[in-house]
Amino acid sequence: MNTKFSAPKGVPDYVPPQSAQFVAVRDALLRAADLAGYGHIELPIFEDTGLFARGVGESTDVVSKEMYTFADRGGRSVTLRPEGTAGVMRSVIENGLDRGQLPVKLRYSGPFFRYERPQAGRYRQLQQVGVEAIGIDDPALDAEVIAVADAGFRSLGLSGFRLDITSLGDSTCRPEYREILQQFLLGLDLDEDTKERARINPLRVLDDKRPHVKEMTADAPLMLDHLSDGAKQHFDEVLSHLDRLGVPYTINPRLVRGLDYYTKTTFEFVHEGLGAQSGIGGGGRYDGLMEQLGGQSLSGIGFGIGVDRTVLALAAEAADPAVTGRCDVYGVPMGQPARERMVELLGTLRAAGVRTDMAYGNRGVKGAMKAADKSGAKYALMLGDRDLAEGTIGLKELATGEQRSVSIDDLLNEVSQGRG
Ligand code: HAM
Question: Which of 80, 161, 197, 397 has a CB 3.0–4.6 Å from the CB of 271, allowing a cystine?
Answer without folding.
Answer: 161
